[in-house]
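Write out this protein's structure.
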Amino acid sequence: MEFTRVEGKRPVSLKLYTLSTCGWCRKTKALLDELGLGYDYLDIDRLPVAEMTQARETVLGWNPNCSFPTIVVNDKECVVGFKEALIRGWGEQ
């Protein structure tokens, strides 16, 4: 699985598991862009079947509901869904 990197000006490490058709996923990416936060994202629905299965298993490890967006922060914690106030807080750090 190869993530797409979006460069930013802040040091937080974010991995986004998204769907290309998900409005909340698009809003999350747009907010991160607005705040200048770098992130790596993976549109799971655009992966080949074998990679999609592997990515889904990874998401399930962080988020048993396997809902989107799933954001892994600094490889330590998981945020599920569009959490605007929380994300804006990352931009202020």
